[in-house]
Amino acid sequence: MSEIIEVSSDWLALREPEDARARSRRLALATARRLGSGPIVIHDLGSGTGSMMRWLAPLLPGPQTWVLHDWNADLVEHAAEGVVPLDHERRAVTVRTRTGELAQLGSDDLEDASLVTASALLDVLTAEEVRAVVQSCVDAGCPALFSLSVTGEVRLDPRDPRDDVFQAAFNEHQERRVGGRRLLGPSGVALAHGLFLEAGWNVRSAATFWRLGDHDPRLLEQWFDGWLEAALEQRADLQVEGAGYRALRWSQLRRGALSAVVVHTDLLAWP
Ligand SMILES: C[S@@+](CC[C@H](N)C(=O)[O-])C[C@H]1O[C@@H](n2cnc3c(N)ncnc32)[C@H](O)[C@@H]1O
User: Fold this and answer.
1) 120 Cα: distance to centroid of ligand 1 (angstroms)
2) Which H or E run includes 81?
3) Using CA atoms, how far apart are residues 40 and 89, in angstroms rounded to an integer?
4) For residue 33, what pLDDT is reported?
5) Can you identify the CATH homologous superfamily of domain 9-270?
6) Ligand 1 centroid to 158 CA: how many Å?
7) How far is CA 33 from CA 5, 26, 30, 113, in A?
């Protein structure tokens, strides 16, 4: 078993409203049109606590069964115990969970799938894992909707001449090696896109944006701290410059004078 990179359920809960606002509704509705009428089975990969299911279930026909896959058993358990979402016809969905590594995902795992989904996943996988995921989707022969993969682009307002250097350091950190796994970071979504095209599939993508600001200062604060901390972990030589930069950004944050746009890509692929 690989070393699990822990994601906290508190962080997933904090970001859930902004994830829901940011995901492409247009691609979700295009997905619904490809599904026809139910019953349908949706496999959500790297489901965490089920945020994608809560957002997408009401937009899709029912009856729906969701199979939530994650290597973190605590997170999927959380999802199974939470409030059950309703489908488009207001029927409660059925939720199942599977704990395991996506590198081991095989065609059998998605055999019954009408749709495969993932949100905020492709950038935290390795090339081997993205290949396993795309191959399993191709074998399953059903549409795949991958929302909110980061592109590496962040726009802070007001701009600061040091933004670019911290952004580059953060993106290097996203591509770091952890316990023998080399993460893809911002190139994850491009790899998946290319693999679907190689398989002869159709792909539609949409630029999607987290818009962080004074309307949710806690999310902006936690995102900014995590972003800068990761950049400084990657580039210890930036520590001194980082302290001054943090102090400036924090004073702007406290005055409600800081905002950030974090650019993502959503992808819909179908045979
Ligand atoms: C950024 S979180 C997103 C969670 C959820 N999709 C959401 O939008 O709230 C990424 C999730 O993928 C899971 N994950 C990451 N790498 C994985 C792997 N190799 N195998 C299985 N799950 C993985 C993590 O445990 C985490 O729950």
Assistant:
1) 7
2) helix 73-81
3) 13
4) 96
5) Vaccinia Virus protein VP39 (3.40.50.150)
6) 32
7) 35, 11, 5, 16
